[in-house]
């Protein structure tokens, strides 16, 4: 007994035999605030270099900011990184 299967239109295939389509390349995410940060930075440099504005932070506030940056960096250290730096430390101190 013969069974006739209707033909699919050109370019169409049965979903069972469809090839997996390649994933589209991921685009790098742009920082949406980059334009604002760049403009503020340029203006700050321009005002400071001309001597019109001098930006100063109180020492305690500056110390808190440095401590925050230090903690954020320090908390990213893994045991493997600490072992590697401990192994290299004597050579670094000898070079000083």
Summarize the structure in short.
The chain is mainly α. It has a domain at 57-96.
Order of helices and strands, N to C?
HHH
Helix count equals 3
Shape: flat
- Rg result: 30 Å
Sheet with most strands: none
Q: What structural class is derived from the secondary structure elements?
A: mainly alpha
Give the N-to-C terminal Cα separation: 91 Å
Residue windows where pLDDT falls under 50 for at least 5 positions: none
Core attributes:
96 residues; mainly alpha; flat
Structure description:
The protein is mainly alpha-helical and 96 residues long. The protein has a domain at 57-96. Helices cover 52% and strands 0% of the residues. The chain has three helices and no strands. It has helices at residues 34-50, 59-74, 79-95. The radius of gyration is 30 Å and the shape is flat. The model has no long low-confidence stretch (mean pLDDT 79).
What's the structural blueprint in terms of helices and strands?
Layout: H1 34-50, H2 59-74, H3 79-95
